[in-house]
What does this fold into?
Amino acid sequence: MKKLQQIGLLFLLLAPAAQADLIFLRPNDIDTRHFPAPPREGSAADAKDIDGVLRWQHDRTKQDCARATDEAGASLKSFYGMSHRVMSDAEITAVKSLYDDIMNDAGEFISPIKKHWARPRPFQRDSRVQICVPKVTGFSYPSGHSTLGRVTALSFGLIFPDRKNALLDRGDEVGTDRVIGGVHHPLDVEMGRKLGDQLFAALKKSPVFNQRIADLKRRLRRYRSVR
It folds into this structure.
């Protein structure tokens, strides 16, 4: 059941925009038509991006690959759970609904950008790239995991301000792990984080989002920090 839930969450993140309704945001909050292009295939910048994947591949450890594999399903616990010393199990349970709703809205903006630029994943276009995480389909640019890692880290930082830096470090590590695993280029991750920043800026203008944050802060006051 847990595996099916993770697959369902990942589907929401990568599904076409028409598949779900926005919860916090409006369709025009971010103009995806003006999102910067990835490097042209065969260009010097593109070659540098592939080289970045290969450098991580050379340096990665079994522990790195195990962590990246655990994160592949984009579950909240794999991102911020007790194994990473960020949130307790009780806190994970409390914020899961918010996480799912942010993922829903993020997917609405990630998907059209991916479809527009249609950048292949590193392992699909360079035989030197050997993945160490589950093989994925869909396009590479920008990284949905890095977008989600950044926007959720910033959002949860409003609830746990004393853990803001730990959340950001962990959210960004999730993105980097997609390069380590061989399923994203470094620039996919970099631009995913920038999209995450844009999404967070838009979320902060949403009364519904702000009310959810306020409600969760009140609910979680009784929980002690795990840090």
